[in-house]
């Protein structure tokens, strides 16, 4: 008896899932990198909102005291990081490294939030964190190198 994951239909669905997720994350991270290049120069003040949803007071302080005064060069670094991760998703051999790089970035966003104001912890969870958890869960299967 063949195992569940040995079924040809399941393998094809797994491949389709990987291709769709890889493509979506490549587009999102490449576009995100470009946005950081543009906003870092034209609208650096938009990054200040992230401090208000940081999960820890020390992170709020760090954001206001270090990140915002240095936002110009930090957005260049972040833009390059996101571009590298996005481009990594386009090449099969680099997908696991790109997926783990994206996961590391998303873990930071999970702790930092997206800067959307919230009146309660539940609203904050829904507006600033739940989507990030979903993205991390989609990326995890890509972080494992497959044989063949």
TrEMBL record:
Q: Which UniProt keywords apply?
A: Membrane, Transmembrane, Transmembrane helix
Q: Does the keyword Transmembrane helix apply?
A: yes
Is Transmembrane among the key words of this record? yes
> Any stretches that span the bilayer, and where are they?
19-39, 71-90, 97-116, 128-144
Protein name according to UniProt: DoxX family protein
The organism encoding this protein is Acidipropionibacterium virtanenii
* Lineage per the UniProt record: Bacteria, Bacillati, Actinomycetota, Actinomycetes, Propionibacteriales
């Amino acid at each position: 008896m063949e195992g569940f994951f040995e079924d040809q239909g399941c393998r094809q669905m797994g491949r389709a899932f990987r291709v769709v997720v890889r493509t979506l994350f490549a587009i999102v991270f490449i576009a995100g990198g470009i946005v950081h290049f543009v906003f870092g120069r034209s609208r650096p003040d938009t990054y200040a909102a992230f401090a208000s949803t940081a999960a820890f007071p020390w992170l709020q302080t760090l954001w206001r005291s270090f990140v915002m005064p240095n936002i110009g060069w930090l957005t260049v670094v972040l833009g390059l990081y996101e571009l590298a991760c996005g481009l990594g998703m386009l090449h099969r051999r680099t997908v696991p490294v790109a997926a783990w790089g994206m996961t590391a970035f998303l873990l930071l966003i999970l702790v930092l939030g997206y800067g959307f104001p919230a009146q309660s912890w539940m609203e904050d969870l829904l507006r600033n964190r739940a989507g990030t958890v979903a993205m991390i869960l989609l990326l995890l299967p890509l972080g494992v190198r497959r044989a063949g």
